């Protein structure tokens, strides 16, 4: 680490700069969801507010521009992508202290610090019978969810999480603090709605609130024999029913501890009628919950609860395992869903001996309802439209114990993604979009957003960051120049 830079940062923010060996450094470095993201920066800086972030950027800029110093920006560390929010040998700016939840006088908007967790946000809004279209885990933070697009259980009703943002407070590469909205810096506002860490450091977001009622949801665990029937129901729901109150995520996977393939549906319904309970779910999602013949009742958890209660359940996973996500997207087609499932199952044998293995394939829909709602909210940087839908978003998930197995697990997933894309092309269902929160290093995120979006993003980058501070100095995540 450049001694002059370290001294300048320590002089400006003496209580916010931490080196290896300090408790605050360790707390930040070991708070990532995946151990693959637990890198070793030379410094961790924990600003308290946007003014601190501005000070940091002003000090860093000449060292980034002239001496090749590299930085990372961490909001909560939930993404497993190595290097997306941390950096070996560089400087990690940890935004965990940028908190705050402020409801507008008319209660239609709420302003959130990007270091807030969704659990805290939901808890604060529940007392006003309100909610936002935020993350599905109480532990994940506001910042990454919003700037990377974000899926919510409410997305079929209101679009992506980023579509609900009316303004961003953001620190630019010159250290200035601006507010971007539909009426002020509108090009930056659109870019930040899904454009990730390419334009500045977002410190606060203002989102639309929604009336909150209890929802029906949870998970159904069932046997592999019912998977083909569930795929049929999924295709019908997405193509014909398209109920905007229903949210579905279907998963099939192998758990080394059990030594077998099992299936799981995460299913939620956000509009309740009287009498809904575990044994009496809303009719549109009966086929995905209590209607599954081989449902294992003791392992399933279904019922009525608040969004916070369900987000708390999703947050139960422990940090520290080696975790990789990879993703692709394709047009809805039932034979293709079955072919992809068979291709996934064929790879299990390759990985069965990996200690601590959890390996799964998940499908969720970009329904016409979701895509239409998203398109009606003023625009974003995702490049999706109703004309392309409905689409299937595919997630490959793996978790394991030892670094010795990294290459095998990662290469197996990469090969499978290539096979799935080939299957989709053969069916005429290939779609280049890659959902950024699920993407792995090397996956081409922004090309899949289309030429029009790509041109606008690069234009915003040149306008607000003419020296390329966030392209060159923040190498992690997915860059516009990739």
From TrEMBL:
<dbReference type="InterPro" id="IPR016166">
    <property type="entry name" value="FAD-bd_PCMH"/>
</dbReference>
<dbReference type="Pfam" id="PF01565">
    <property type="entry name" value="FAD_binding_4"/>
</dbReference>
<dbReference type="InterPro" id="IPR016169">
    <property type="entry name" value="FAD-bd_PCMH_sub2"/>
</dbReference>
<dbReference type="InterPro" id="IPR006094">
    <property type="entry name" value="Oxid_FAD_bind_N"/>
</dbReference>
<dbReference type="GO" id="GO:0016491">
    <property type="term" value="F:oxidoreductase activity"/>
</dbReference>
<dbReference type="GO" id="GO:0071949">
    <property type="term" value="F:FAD binding"/>
</dbReference>
<dbReference type="InterPro" id="IPR036318">
    <property type="entry name" value="FAD-bd_PCMH-like_sf"/>
</dbReference>
<protein>
    <submittedName>
        <fullName>FAD-binding domain-containing protein</fullName>
    </submittedName>
</protein>
<feature type="domain" description="FAD-binding PCMH-type">
    <location>
        <begin position="37"/>
        <end position="212"/>
    </location>
</feature>
<comment type="similarity">
    <text>Belongs to the oxygen-dependent FAD-linked oxidoreductase family.</text>
</comment>
<keyword id="KW-0285">Flavoprotein</keyword>
<dbReference type="InterPro" id="IPR050416">
    <property type="entry name" value="FAD-linked_Oxidoreductase"/>
</dbReference>
<keyword id="KW-0560">Oxidoreductase</keyword>
<keyword id="KW-0274">FAD</keyword>
């Amino acid at each position: 680490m450049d001694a002059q830079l370290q001294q300048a940062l320590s002089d400006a923010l003496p209580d916010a700069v931490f080196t290896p060996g300090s408790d605050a450094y360790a707390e930040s470095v070991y708070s990532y969801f995946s151990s693959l993201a637990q890198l070793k920066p030379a410094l961790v800086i924990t600003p308290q507010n946007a003014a601190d972030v501005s000070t940091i950027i002003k000090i860093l800029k000449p060292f980034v521009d002239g001496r090749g110093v590299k930085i990372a920006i961490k909001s909560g560390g939930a993404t497993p992508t190595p290097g997306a929010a941390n950096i070996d040998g560089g400087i990690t700016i940890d935004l965990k202290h940028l908190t705050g939840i402020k409801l507008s006088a008319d209660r239609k908007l709420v302003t959130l610090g990007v270091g807030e967790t969704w659990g805290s946000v939901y808890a604060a809004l529940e007392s006003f019978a309100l909610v936002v279209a935020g993350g599905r885990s109480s532990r994940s933070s506001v910042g990454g969810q919003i700037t990377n697009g974000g899926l919510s259980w409410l997305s079929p009703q209101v679009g992506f999480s980023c579509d609900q943002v009316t303004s961003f407070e953001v620190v630019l590469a010159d250290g200035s603090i601006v507010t971007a909205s539909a009426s002020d810096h509108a090009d930056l506002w659109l870019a930040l709605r899904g454009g990730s860490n390419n334009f500045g450091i977002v410190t606060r977001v203002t989102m639309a609130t929604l009336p909150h009622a209890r929802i029906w949801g949870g998970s159904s665990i069932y046997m592999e024999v019912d998977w083909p029937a569930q795929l049929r129901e999924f295709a019908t729901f997405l193509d014909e029913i398209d109920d905007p109150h229903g949210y579905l995520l279907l998963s099939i996977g192998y758990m080394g501890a059990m030594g077998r393939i099992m299936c799981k549906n995460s299913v939620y319904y956000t509009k309740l009628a009287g009498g809904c309970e575990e044994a009496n779910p809303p009719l549109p999602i009966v086929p995905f919950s209590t209607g599954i013949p081989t449902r294992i009742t003791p392992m399933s958890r279904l019922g009525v609860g608040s969004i916070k209660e369900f987000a708390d359940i999703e947050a139960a996973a422990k940090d520290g395992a080696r975790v990789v996500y990879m993703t692709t997207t394709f047009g809805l087609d039932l034979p293709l869903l079955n072919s992809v499932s068979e291709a996934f199952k064929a790879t299990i044998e390759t990985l069965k001996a990996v200690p601590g293995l959890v390996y799964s394939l998940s499908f969720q829909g970009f329904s016409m309802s979701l895509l239409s709602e998203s398109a009606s909210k003023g625009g974003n940087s995702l490049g999706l439209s109703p004309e392309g839908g409905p689409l299937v978003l595919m997630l490959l998930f793996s978790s394991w114990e030892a670094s010795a197995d990294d290459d095998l697990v990662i290469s197996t997933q990469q090969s499978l993604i290539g096979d799935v894309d080939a299957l989709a092309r053969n069916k005429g269902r290939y779609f280049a979009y890659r959902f950024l929160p699920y993407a792995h290093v090397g996956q081409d995120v922004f090309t899949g957003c289309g030429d029009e979006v790509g041109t606008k993003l690069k234009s915003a980058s040149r306008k607000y960051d003419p020296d390329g501070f966030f392209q060159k100095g923040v190498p992690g995540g997915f860059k516009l120049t990739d």
